[in-house]
Amino acid sequence: MINGAHVIIYSQNAEADRAFLKDILGYPHVDAGHGWLIFKLPPAEVAVHPTTTTESHELYLMCDNLNQTVADLSAQGVEFPHPPEDQGWGILTTIRLPGGSNLGLYQPHHQPAYDL
Length: 116
Fold this sequence. Notes:
By secondary structure, this protein is α+β, with helices and mostly antiparallel strands. The chain has helices at about 15-25, 65-75; strands at about 30, 35-40, 60, 85, 90-95, 100-110. The strands form two sheets. The protein has a four-stranded mixed beta sheet with strand order 3-6-5-4, with no helix packed on it. A two-stranded antiparallel sheet has the order 1-2. The longest helix is centred in the first third of the chain and has 11 residues, at about 15-25. The protein is globular. It starts with 13 loop residues before the first helix and ends in an 8-residue tail after the last strand.
């Protein structure tokens, strides 16, 4: 049966974004060969949202205390293009990756499903 998920982040600067995941976020990794790093992610959950437009997929990292996480990462030079905003279901912001794209970060107000 299915035993995991593989998430892909497309990047204009994959090497810099890999270094960010390894050095700033400290994610353990394996080298699949030639410096192609595959990272272990924290526990995960998936949600399905309705849409009337083209389907897309998004990746959000989760934390228990968004303000503290933003402060800790900011101290390491991480950029946050948008200030944290309460969305009702959680507090949301975005991390600017070195490659130029944004990665969602939020503190959920709901019980995380990964603890089930």
